[in-house]
Specification:
Elements lengths: L2 E5 L2 E5 L19 E4 L6 H13 L4 H8 L3 H8 L5 H20 L8 H14 L10 E6 L5 H11 L3 E5 L7 H11 L12 H8 L5 E5 L6 H7 L1 H5 L3 E6 L1 H9 L3 H4 L6 E4 L4 H10 L5 H11 L4 H19 L6 H10 L8
Parallel strand pairs: 4-7, 4-8, 5-6, 6-7
Antiparallel strand pairs: 1-2, 2-3
Helix pairs in contact: 4-15, 5-6, 7-8, 13-14, 14-16, 15-16
């Protein structure tokens, strides 16, 4: 008979195993402690918010009780505020299981026209320019939520030679940026003892690799000029991602040292249009005139593709909880409302 003991977040379980020295038809038991990591529980308020969203979508309590293993009176008490630990754990595991299944079914990067141009600009920056192995600079500026960051994160996830770094208030100087690159490569932001930070980055990245700096509009021109040493001297491409104002500032500064290296790697990303939205709907297997019309309303605006992905994620949660076969416009509207991108009737 098994006996389980939980310590912190590691569960130890006593199991019966065959004794290697016994005949095949006889077994005895010895105690083995097998580590079984358990997921941390969701916050009760977060669980309550998800249940409220399900109720708004018309998902019946009977379905919640059957799938979660929580008895109906216990569920009603929990919703009313009497939140015992056992019910909280069952609801948390149920919701996380659904989220895990949705994550596994994710379609990944969808190549719409804007994404293709962005990926192409990244690759151009990595190409050698002449016999000396110099690389270029990609400058990708324009509307928010159009796929710039999504493309950068995807490329980093599939290519060890790519580092995507978000510029912020603490990462704006030459050295802090390089420390950020080292941190992304697992060195906790520091070079080896006696090693210059630039040399540490060169040790981890080689010719044809790429450093992508997101929110590059926050960088001063002199910092960008310092970073050109990587494409010029070390054969490591550089990509700058930012908003439209960022590129205007770069042009107004008349920085020929930077702009002359951009060449074919310049991409102006416009506000998303139906040509950007339709490939996403196809990949997500969303069909129907009303469904497409609503997704175009969400997606064809500044920041629209980000809003659309967030809408689809929230809508999928409701579809999963409801056990529905099709993601229809009702789930899409509720998903957009839950994501904060919709507050009225289409």
């Amino acid at each position: 008979m098994s006996q389980a003991e939980t310590t912190g977040l590691i569960r130890f379980e006593e199991v019966a195993v065959p004794n290697a020295g016994s005949p095949p038809d006889k077994t005895d038991t010895e105690t083995l402690f097998r580590e079984k990591p358990t997921r941390p529980l969701m916050r009760p308020d977060a669980i309550a918010a998800r249940i409220a969203e399900m109720q708004s979508a018309g998902i019946k309590p009977t379905r919640m009780t059957v799938e979660s293993g929580v008895l109906r009176p216990a569920l009603e008490d929990w919703i009313a505020g009497k939140r015992d630990t056992d019910t909280t754990a069952k609801l948390s595991n149920w919701i996380r299981d659904m989220d895990d299944e949705l994550a596994k079914a994710s379609v990944g990067l969808v190549e719409n026209p804007a994404i293709k141009r962005i990926i192409n600009a990244f690759e151009k920056a990595r190409e050698p320019r002449g016999a000396d192995g110099r690389r270029g600079i990609a400058a990708i500026f324009g509307a928010s939520g159009a796929g710039k960051t999504t493309a950068a994160k995807w490329l980093e996830s599939v290519d060890d030679g790519v580092v995507h770094l978000q510029i912020n208030g603490e990462t704006k100087t030459y050295v802090s940026i390089l420390r950020g690159v080292l941190a992304k490569k697992g060195l906790y932001g520091f070079a080896a003892t006696g090693e210059a930070t630039t040399d540490a980055v060169r040790r981890l990245l080689g010719e044809g690799d790429l450093i992508i700096l997101d929110h590059a509009q926050l960088l001063q021109t002199r910092v960008i000029e310092q970073l050109t040493v990587f494409p010029d001297e070390y054969g490591i491409g550089l990509a700058l991602i930012g908003n439209a104002a960022g590129y205007k500032a770069l042009v107004d500064a008349k920085t020929k040292q930077i702009l002359s290296r951009v060449g074919g790697g310049l991409v102006h990303v416009d506000i998303p249009c139906e040509n950007d939205v339709d490939p996403i709907l196809e990949a997500e297997q969303i069909s129907g005139r009303e469904e497409r019309r609503f997704c175009l309303v969400i997606g064809c605006q500044d920041g629209g593709l980000r809003y659309l992905y967030e809408t689809l994620r929230e809508a999928r949660k409701l579809q999963k909880a409801a056990g529905a076969q099709r993601l229809d416009v009702r789930f899409l509207k509720l998903g957009a409302e839950n994501a904060g991108h919709w507050g009225g009737q289409a």
